[in-house]
Amino acid sequence: MRRKLPSLVLAVLVALATAGVATAANGGFTPVEPASPNAHHIQHAYYLILGFTSAIFILVETLLVVFVVKYRSRGRARAVEGAQVHGHSRLELIWTAFPVVILAIIAGFVFYELPNVDSAPAAADPIHVTVEGHQYYWQFDYTDSPDRARSIGTLHVPAGRVVDLKVVSPDVIHSWWIPALGGKIQAIPGRINHTWFQADPGSYDGQCAELCGVFHASMRATVRSESQQQYRHYLATWQDTIGKQIWNGVCATCHGNLGQGGYGIAIANNSLLTQKSGLEGVIRNGFTGAQGAMPPVGHTWSQAEIDAIAAYVKKHIYKTAPLGGSNGG
Amino acid sequence: MAARSEAAYPVGWKSGRVASWLVTVDHKRIGILYIATSLVWFVAGGILALLMRTQLATPNEAFLTKNSYNEVMTMHGTTMIFLVVIPILAGFANFLVPLMIGARDMAFPRLNALSYWLFLLGGIILWLSWFSKGGAAHAGWWSYPTLSENFPFTSPGHGQDYWILSLHILSLSSMLGAINFIVTIHNMRAPGMTWMRMPLFIWAIETYAILLLVALPALSAAITLLLLDRTVGTHFFIPSHGGNLLLYQHMFWFFGHPEVYVMVLPVFGMISEILPVFARKPIFGYKAVAFSTIGIAFFSMLVWAHHMFTTGMPVGLDSFFMISSMVIAVPTGIKIFNWIATTWRGNLIFDTPMLFALGFIALFTMGGLSGIFLAAFPVDWQVNDSYYVVAHFHYVLFGGSAFGFFGGLYYWWPKMFGRMLDERLGKWHFWLLFVGFNLTFLPQHMLGLLGMVRRIYTYHHAGQWEAYNLTSSIGSGVMALATLVFLVNVWRTNVLRQGVRAGNDPWLADTLEWYTTSPPPPQNFDSVPYVTSARPLRDLRRRLAEQAQ
User: Fold this and answer.
1) A152: enclosing H helix or E strand
2) Which of A81, A99, A228, B353 has the maximal Cβ count within 10 Å?
3) Considering Cα of B343, then B347, then B350, then B353, what sign does the dihedral take?
4) Domain for residue B7, yes or no?
5) Which of B476, B295, B486 lies closest to B390 in space, CA to CA?
6) Other C-beta atoms within 10 Å of A111: how many?
7) Using the beta-carbon criterion (under 8 Å), do A214 and B70 form an inter-chain contact?
């Protein structure tokens, strides 16, 4: 009985893996449902590789199990030797050549799919967005819009339009990834990378995929693929909400949603929130003192954005948190 | 020779129970020191893993967060790679190389001792860095700048500096060890042991040592530049001053990928020793297995940038690194098929070493196949830096390397200590570890495909994310239990001395280490038989049987 156990468990595993392939397309057996052509074509390559590797997996594990069962000792003494076979050149040649052929097919298919993954459709009239990874938020600049609209954390795009992303970072390496909209691209300080998508209508979540520091886990992004009208509306009204977006995306990560403190100090009752010039100094230049340090988050922000965040915190954060709240840590 | 004088002329304090281990230059004792030390760190690194799995068991957990999590994650990776897998394999190599080639010791016994003590020192420095200003390093085991640079919001404090210092010392230790192995293997083989009669483990160690010599300088250079950036104000990796971050990634992975094979080739060697003995057959295709080792090592130096597919390299480079990475699958496939063919028409005896060897094949195959997805760079763009990759490399490094070295421990334990590990506990160990391992890491493939990125300390998704994460965390508990069973087994065998005494050759094995007593005397052999094949001990048994007739 004990001798059969290994084969039994292996057989169960093989069955599980087969079942896994059978129930593909849900439960995390394939990448998330694609919503952009590049993601679709990655999915095709994934399926092809999944097909070949599953076949090899089943072949290898089955051979292993069958041999384990068939050639088990059955109480023969240790001194009894198995067949003294030293090799078989032709057989070995076959299992050298066979993977070469499979790998060539996979590589060929990757090259066939590559143009559809790597570059946007040629006829497209793309909109351009600069994606800036920051510790710990994504900033989107709509470079086509006349007043260079901006959003934090959420990217608004018109559904069906090709979006060309220029991906950069001023601080550490981040990695841009919205699983439904294709693969990753790192945001590397000192370099400019490009990627693209053409999203179906909907809302798609993702997050930074390269360890970027304390709040790597909080560095999320959402792409809202909406109607042309909604998209235009955002570009026209971005300045109305940018204060709130900055608070939620930039400040609240450390200071808490209500300014009650957390990783950073509690600021809800700090009178600096009402003094715009002092506040601007801290936001633009950062701060180092006994209470800890704050990065110069806003050193590239426009005056309009500084004004917006200053107005927002004065109205919505100052003295709104419960008194005696947490003081950091 | 040093090893002999130690036994024949014990002098004063050096012969004490503890002191004799401190001053030893005997390769067997050094090997055991390596292995014992690595196992201590295996437990420590495993505890770090359990902390992380506890934090990730459920969404929005607050058990271990932010920088604490990043420190634990960085230390887990660094410990498991530099303080467990590499040194435990160095330990096996130390113990086995002279015995397997019929030599009395390593070529440079004192250098060998130095390698071990440097390893211990490097490890202690790494673990003391928990107490340094700013805590341990928290930029991940590959420590990409600028996150690892000395800025207020990246890696201030000294944890990163100690991490660099520790890796420098560990690299030195590995370099010295590698030189020692190469010289020993080239010069000290028994009469008649030509290259084609060497045990396959020796082939693996020769290749592993050469890989270390080629790859380690790139790491040393990269972290030296990082140290200069951090401490004396250079700007190698500070883009605002003209530095280049991709330079670090290239240098690191030029070391980092051969490193993967440094961690797995010696295990391939062990599997190639264990399988034939428990199948009662010769290895199927000795030459194919030996030369595929060299093939893997060669190509492993040409694939490094497949770790960098998402850095926006030109498609031409992506294509080159995809093809070179796929090429590596060919010699690896040769090994898998040759190992399976080795069991064909055998008399398979399922002692614990054999279970681990078969488990290794089953799991490593999975890790190898998931690697094909990662080599196809458009697919890698999707799964890179997700839990899919975490699952992949744990199948390679735990399902592969760790299952291999556990098999090696059960197999060579009687030679090291003269006592067998308990078979019943050994089988419990194997099955718990096998089940726990798959519970832990199989669901991580799915998590990665669902979009869970690696190195996050929390997530907010319920449903499938939670189910897979919880399964994974439960699996890690089962693995911990398995490890506990192993430690009990070791305690029973060596401390309570309940292990069955082993003769010279309890497994009826093929190679020269089983010719001498268990454990071997300080000088290893009084005489070594002339080697006429790759299986000198089987030849000897057959000659004796013929004489008896």
Assistant:
1) strand A149-152
2) B353
3) negative
4) no
5) B476
6) 14
7) yes
Q: Which are the catalytic amino acids of B?
A: 76, 105, 141, 173-174, 257, 259, 261, 272, 306-307, 332, 335, 454
Q: Does A254 touch chain B (CB under 8 A)?
A: no
Q: How far apart are CA B80 and CA B83, in angstroms?
A: 6
Structure tokens at B423: 């078979």
In the numeric block, which tokens belong to residue B90? Answer: 């160095």
B244/A88 Cβ within 8 A: no
Contact A186, B147 (CB under 8 A): no
Does residue B137 sit in helix, strand or coil? coil
Three-state DSSP class for B455?
A: coil
Local mean pLDDT, 10-residue blocks, chain B (549 residues): 50 80 95 98 98 97 94 97 97 97 96 97 97 94 95 92 98 97 97 96 97 96 97 95 96 96 97 97 96 95 96 95 96 96 96 98 96 96 96 97 98 97 97 98 96 96 94 97 98 94 95 96 94 96 91
The neighbour count for residue B119, using CB atoms within 10 Å, is: 27
Q: Is B5 a member of any domain?
A: no
Q: Does the residue B20 lie in any domain? A: no
Which CATH number do you get for residue B481? 1.20.210.10
What DSSP designation does B301 have?
T
Interface contacts (A, B; CB < 8 Å): 286
Q: How many domains does chain B have?
A: 1
Tally of CB atoms within 10 A around B108:
17
Nearest to B365 among A60, A113, A182 (CB): A60
Alpha carbons B242 and B174: distance in angstroms, whole number: 33
Report the SS3 class of residue B476.
helix
Range of the domain at B436: 25-548
Nearest to A185 among B281, B312, B366 (CB): B312
Is B48 part of any domain?
A: yes
Helix axes B245-279, B86-100, angle to 10 degrees: 50
DSSP code, position A217: G
